Amino acid sequence: MTEAPTRRGRGGGGAARRAERTAVRIECAKTISRNIPNLEILNEEALEIIEYNAETVLEEVGVNFVENPTALERWKNAGADVSGERVRIPRGLARELCKTAPSSFTQHARNPERNVEIGGKNMVLAPVYGPPFVRDAAGGRRYATMEDFRKFVKLAYMSKWLHHSGGTVCEPTDVPVNKRHLDMLLAHMTLSDKPYMGSVTAPERAQDSIEMSEILFGKEFVQQNTVMTSLININSPMQYDDVMMGAMEVFAANNQASIISPFIVGGAMAPVSVAGTLTQVLAEVLAGVAYSQLVRKGAPVVAGTFVSSIDMNSGAPTFGTPEAAHVTYGAGQLFRRLGLPYRSAGSFNGSKLPDAQAAYESANSLNMGLLSGVNFMLHAAGWLEGGLVASFEKFVMDADQLGTLHHLAKGIEVDENAQAMDAIREVGPGGHYLGCAHTQSNFKTAFWRSDLLDYKPFETWEEEGARDTEALATARVQKLLTDYQQPGIDPGIAEGLRDYVETKKASMPDAFG
Amino acid sequence: MTEAPTRRGRGGGGAARRAERTAVRIECAKTISRNIPNLEILNEEALEIIEYNAETVLEEVGVNFVENPTALERWKNAGADVSGERVRIPRGLARELCKTAPSSFTQHARNPERNVEIGGKNMVLAPVYGPPFVRDAAGGRRYATMEDFRKFVKLAYMSKWLHHSGGTVCEPTDVPVNKRHLDMLLAHMTLSDKPYMGSVTAPERAQDSIEMSEILFGKEFVQQNTVMTSLININSPMQYDDVMMGAMEVFAANNQASIISPFIVGGAMAPVSVAGTLTQVLAEVLAGVAYSQLVRKGAPVVAGTFVSSIDMNSGAPTFGTPEAAHVTYGAGQLFRRLGLPYRSAGSFNGSKLPDAQAAYESANSLNMGLLSGVNFMLHAAGWLEGGLVASFEKFVMDADQLGTLHHLAKGIEVDENAQAMDAIREVGPGGHYLGCAHTQSNFKTAFWRSDLLDYKPFETWEEEGARDTEALATARVQKLLTDYQQPGIDPGIAEGLRDYVETKKASMPDAFG
């Protein structure tokens, strides 16, 4: 099965198949390429204090690698002080080990036009990850199913501004927990041609992700190239569990990328102060990335941070807050100094509905993500209710707003056309620019335009039913799902993937919970 | 009347009056003081190109001062080339004249605790300005009245994060157009103790603003201090009408501040390109500020930009867009190089409702305003439907979000307490920070907390009626208006103000439209 023809169509395929492929061509931005600076809110002194403290934490406090004797052995051999499951890392060692991780890497998609470069001045946008619930206006809040999952994959595929198909866009709770990853991977691989993430919920599921990717891309291609970027959470504070680390080991050994990401609710999993949180985050990422390089030197990794604040009245995590922004800006600076690609931010919010709260908090976080130098933004669309819910309407709202980030990132052109001196001379005081030559030749590309939001005159808007953003989004979800056409895929590969999934599923009893 | 006792209570007043004053003490942030850098998106070369081009525009194309022979005379005397109403300003002259404008100034409030410093690293936040309509959930969209106006003044007074009472928070359309300014000023002066703006719709109304301020502060105090910051729009492109300039002349002559602000819908009143718009904006501000200094050297001024994009399909202005952000960032850099305080941004959006669109667009604009170095943000709360509507719910939503800007601006502390090394040592791998000593002693001030948004568990939220942000905001508007207590004012001053308004109103026939 893994000997199936590599990359779409290379193994042959007739004109019909090629026609099918071209029929479903959709427009998609390549990536966000920043032509604007990052906001650097920590000065050199602050950066050095935090870096020094993080090394102190690694050396004095250390980190736990839980139920993972191989990891402890690797650390011991590398020169760390291992005692029980506690690994204390001498000052400078983790930083030194991190140096073999690439500062940027290409994640390949089955459609090479959708390959993404993760690192440098780029930002790659991927959908929400992990919610057990979905919500839409018609059906309200309910447990997510595999059918919901497929819809989100289609919506991400149809989005001009999402570069990546993501991973667990919602938890398909109607599929046994030990088999979900197979259906999810199959959906990403066949319903979209954008890059995707692998399964991390068990080492053997990571292995399945590799094997399915080998069917899709060819075995040799997978060994020589990165085709998955997967999310490895650290159990903050400073604990690396065997499940997540086991998955990471599989991915690293196969040259596949991992996002090594502390998961922080400030005040609970990290100190209540921003500088303290940054210290812990840096220590955790240093140890995690260093460990990936002990597994395989040069394995691609992304330094991550997931951070929310906490409402000290209720204990609820809060999103789109200034303190989360501080951590995100600061972590960007620290990770750039390490020369690592950076994952953070997203369409974060704590609202139950895709309303104004959801939008304020999400916009705060999305803008902050752009300006903090994030290279991979998971959760860029669809997040609701603190990540418990993937919302269909919110998904297309966020996806639309991601267009503003693309345009902001372009920066300001100052070539002769952009200077527009002829236009200013032509129009003169008291005139207007609507009809002038410069406007005529530039207006089509001059301004970002929403594909969703309402720009109509009040009277028209009222006649059409006085719809709010959620209602507009409901209509857009329906339109996109109606317009959706599956991107062409070599039938032999598709069959190989289905066979693999069926065979695997048949080999295991169902497990739930 | 203008000989009335100066500043609150100085002319006497008993214990009862003093007790009344202290009873209504409300919490209000002094100002936003930035401890984070601005985002500088233009490089030196781009800045120099735009600066050079702006001077070329002033020299070759020039600006019109309409129906204002005094202005033309002043320009001629200053060395400009005046032909008809066209003023062509030799390269460097306007820039030179701008040098006498202060880089920062204090605007005094009748309560000295509410004085604001406009310039430097500060940002002062003021409410929406100008909408002819209001909206709330109960009453929908309707023409604004003086009663609505008073409610907005009260809401701004009650806000912790609005530093300024603003000006025409809505157009009180039930009051004759030639008398509105009197009622509006009376409301600002008596219902709030925050600083306010003067009337600019006619030179004589500017004069009334001065005279009423003299009653409130004392004549001498007004001549020696700035007690108003008023909005003077330029009719872009490059036209300075006699009404606005006439008002500006009155304010400058009396040492009162003007915001000199091009009003731009990109592609209509300025070139469709960002660099072209910045060139025109800089030329317009240079000429306007220079002119203020010809009226009175050292008169306080603020360099403004109001910019929106245009939807080239419908011609509608659009808000919270990336191109508007580019102009706002760029103008901030250009004006800082001129050493002038900067006005821009606001809670801009084009939505008809206080929904997700309104919030996305507003958040985009508010965040951008903070990071572009704005010193005076008009329209910081309440803006809806492209500025046609002042929304009560949106007002309290925005006012709440302004808290995030305050906290973001604080930057990251790195003192020993913030470093939290003891906490990290105390908690260790696998622990949690909720109960640790550092969290206990810091949690109250660690995180910004919304006074409006929903942080409740899903079940509680559902039991309480599954309210969206607008519904929460409706309740908050009602609560604030119920809790409102008028800040104490010397009864003699209050009476003097009422007398002035009555006498003025009686002296004029009503005028509408």
From TrEMBL, chains A, B:
Region annotation Disordered: where it falls in the sequence: 1-20
Its EC number(s): 2.1.1.-
InterPro entries listed in its UniProt record: MttB-like_sf (IPR038601), MTTB_MeTrfase (IPR010426)
Single annotated GO MF: methyltransferase activity
Top EC category: transferase
GO biological process terms, semicolon-separated: methanogenesis; methylation
Pfam families (UniProt xref): MTTB
Keywords assigned by UniProt, alphabetized: Methyltransferase, Transferase
Assigned protein family: Belongs to the trimethylamine methyltransferase family.
Full protein name: Methyltransferase
Upper lineage: Bacteria, Pseudomonadati, Pseudomonadota, Alphaproteobacteria, Rhodobacterales
